[in-house]
Design goal:
Radius of gyration: 19 Å
Mean pLDDT: 94
Keywords: Oxidoreductase
Number of strands: 11
Protein name: Ldh family oxidoreductase
Helix content: 25-40%
Low-confidence stretches: none
CATH class: Alpha Beta
Family: Belongs to the LDH2/MDH2 oxidoreductase family.
Largest sheet: 7 strands, mixed
Pfam family, one: Ldh_2
Number of helices: 10
CATH topology: Ribosomal Protein S8, Chain: A, domain 1
InterPro entries: Mal/L-sulf/L-lact_DH-like_ah, Mal/L-sulf/L-lact_DH-like_NADP, Mal/L-sulfo/L-lacto_DH-like_sf, Malate/L-lactate_DH-like
Length: 333
């Protein structure tokens, strides 16, 4: 029912079938994996962006092959989910031919959880990377105002006979949608991850307006540097708009303006490097060693993705929790 309601809401808001299907697929991925900040709770956000014209519900994608291993996809300001899935599929096709496939997605919009697209690449048999820039919400290290977007990086790698290794992370301390989720749930935020509009640290989600870069007060230069790398790959390389010049998707005043961000998709075929058999054997050796590594005080060591796969199994069994605002929008209550 949840998937059907989200899909119907996007159709009603003006999304064509490929766009609505891709967005629902990506949101359900996030909800099943426990990434609730980027799950079905974003349905109302996308529906509003479609109705306002900020996002084009019926985009005409155009692909330009630029070399044997590269291409650019113009997303025509459509929902970023459809563009990112298409970009990753194309990157995998190119990697099958050339060993490596790199696709820049230009003139796109918010695409939700980056891990959805990296996972699609890994499920097709490739090591995959997905990045996206975004409107500015995050300070620079030591900065006093917003500059970078949350600029996620996701990577996934196939594992023979098992679910893929999967890393999905923002380059900010937390994603901005975590603030919105905590507002809906009336929960206090963790310490040192957000600040109010004056730059003062706050744990109150209703006062939080600015995110801090990954690494915190002392090591935030790491998160800020990674965010810059994402901007270079996703926006500058594709000819899209750098973070600090992107119109906000949630403007505090005035009418929303058309969005324009970029994504980057990379696929690598292990067969063209160590060979599939060698890759599978070494990947298994690596993951076995990682998971058997001793933890402090008996802590279990997990590979990236392990916790999310467990969450997916639990939610497939027990159902997906939905916050009150989303439940009302999707008419689940």
């Amino acid at each position: 029912m949840l998937e059907e309601r989200a899909l119907a809401a996007l159709r009603e808001a003006g999304a064509d079938e490929p766009s609505a299907t891709a967005a629902t697929r990506a949101m359900m991925h996030a909800s099943r994996m426990g990434v609730d900040s980027h799950g079905v709770r974003l349905t109302s956000f996308y529906a509003e962006a479609l109705r306002s014209g900020q996002v084009n519900g019926r985009p005409d994608f155009k692909v330009r092959r630029t070399a044997s291993a590269s291409a650019v996809l113009d997303a025509d300001r459509g929902l970023g989910h459809a563009a990112a899935y298409a970009g990753m599929e194309l990157a995998c096709q190119i990697a099958k031919e050339s060993g490596v496939g790199a696709v820049g997605v230009a003139h796109s919009t918010h695409y939700g959880a980056a891990g959805a697209y990296a996972l699609a690449g890994a499920e097709a048999g490739f090591i995959a990377l997905s990045t996206s820039n975004a409107d500015s919400l995050v300070t620079l290290h030591g900065g006093a105002k917003r500059f970078h977007g949350t600029n996620p990086i996701a990577a996934a790698a196939p594992v023979a006979g098992a679910r893929p290794w999967l890393l999905d992370m923002a380059t900010s301390s937390i994603p901005y949608n975590r603030i919105l989720l905590f507002r809906s749930l009336q929960r206090e935020l963790p310490a040192e991850v957000t600040a109010d509009i004056a730059g003062e640290p706050t744990r109150d989600p209703h006062l939080a307006e600015v995110l801090t870069p990954l690494g915190g007060q002392d090591f935030g230069f790491k998160g800020a540097g990674l965010a810059g790398l994402v901007t270079i790959l996703s926006a500058i390389l594709t000819g899209s708009t750098p973070d600090h010049l992107v119109p906000p998707m949630n403007p505090e005043e005035g009418e929303p303006k058309p969005h324009d961000i970029g994504h980057f998709c990379l696929a690598i075929d292990p067969e063209r490097f160590v060979g599939r058999a060698g890759y599978d054997a070494l990947m298994q050796q690596y993951l076995t060693g990682l998971r058997e590594s001793p933890g402090r005080s008996g802590a279990e060591i997990l590979a990236p993705g392990d916790r999310e796969w467990r969450t997916m199994e639990q939610r497939n069994r027990d159902g997906i929790p939905v916050d009150p605002d989303t439940a009302r929008f999707l008419k689940l209550v």
